[in-house]
Amino acid sequence: MKTITLLSTLAAMALSVNVQANQDVSGFYIGGGVGTTDANLSSDSVSYSPSTDGSSLKVIAGYQFNRIVAIEAQYTSYGDIKTPSVYSYNWEPTTVSLAANLGYTFDNGLRPFATIGFSALDLNESQNLLNDNNSTALRIGAGLEYTPASLGGVSFRAGYEADAFIIDTGYLANDDIDVFIGSLYVAASYKF
Q: Please, which of 20, 84, 105, 165 could form a disulfide with 149 given CB 3.0 to 4.6 Å?
């Protein structure tokens, strides 16, 4: 009986891989995700990791051209970031990004990927202390996506993506602060 169960399981797995291999991976997709936020601020030789509160939220839309290349737009809300200050001053940064999603879709549905692109960032300061509340950021990331053949277009993803940018404070001796805000997240999407 154990042998029959084992052979049945192996046959089901083989059929699943075969179905995935013949599946067309191109198409539009939409999805959403949730994660944790981390941040790092640095200027000259000083580096600081501010505390973060709340979850990062993502809305994802894109088009996958083939097993390797996709183009993806994202809206990301990073939650609250409490910056070093004597006042109760914080950021609630949001970004809208456009990035290339480069990876490879294997026959078993796994797809390791990396993203690179640009973001339009809004810090959403609690008080207007900086010269510029908006910036253009470099978007980078990496992760792993899984598309089970049995779920017909539903994909699951885990990854890390971050936005790197420079802020001109306007009031420090060195006016530039390098900022790196990232999110470790999980997401689900549906491909049409």
A: 20
